[in-house]
Amino acid sequence: MRGPAQPQSALFSYLSVEDRIPPDHPLRAMRQLVDPILTALSPRFAALYSELGRPSIPPEYLLRALLLQILYTIRSERQLMEQLDYNLLYRWFVGLQPDDPVWVPTVFSKNRDRLLAGDICVNFRGERRSNATHRSVTDPDARLTRKSSNTAALLGYVGSVLMDNRHGLVVATDVRSPSYEAERDAALALVARLAPRARRRTVGADKGYDTDAFVAALRRCRVTPHISPNVHARRRCSAIDRRTTRHPGYDVSQRKRKRVEEVFGWNKMIGLVRKLRHRGRETVGWVFTFTNAVYNLVRLRTLIAAEAGA
Fold it and tell me: What domains lie within the chain, and their CATH numbers?
């Protein structure tokens, strides 16, 4: 029997938003991880704001909204505000009541430390180009770069991460303008930021890092380079020899290091890092770090669930 279609009337509900969220929804586990962090950051938030003037968007709400934008691949602040207006799940996660008004997208962007929505990747297909002739007037820190000889050169940045092999968590991030040595320089900077310890560390990397200067710099930092040898017809000798490759830990590092591609894959497909929406190295670096922090939260949720089920 076909049920009759009833016209909608004004909505009156005696259920709270909390009751409408399923107990096993993934965002509940995410909220349990996020709330203690935001509570610990409250004194730092207080130092950023004046006691005078109009109240701004609470930073806790703002950061939870940014988490949603990354987790659900929402491509603009305007779309994020639109979904916050009608999505009770999003309102619950951010902390908004059902009747609370949402923010104007431009106000939200300014409150997010003046992070501007926009696209800095410019395509000069068919033109002879270099950093001397094609420089962004809106983002001078961006440089022309390409992943291979068969792809177009686009204005962008080099984003690097340092990953913990044991759990696959991002330990540190770095964003800088592209250059020939940018990735290796970033790797050394990330390693140098680690707290010193008595036991030597190991760092796994692909063959692009197999240079005498890079390997020597790692060893000066008391780090054992577990780098894939880059040996070919024009380079017969690697900076990595049997003193390193003969140990079982070297093979473990070579297997584990490939998991960093999971981080970059998630960043590009879910975290919207494939196509930058912001300008300036400082802003892009903040967004890149925040996106990887969200990846860590997703990864932690998975690890906690696996530990509970073991």
Answer: 17-111 (no CATH), 143-309 (3.30.420)
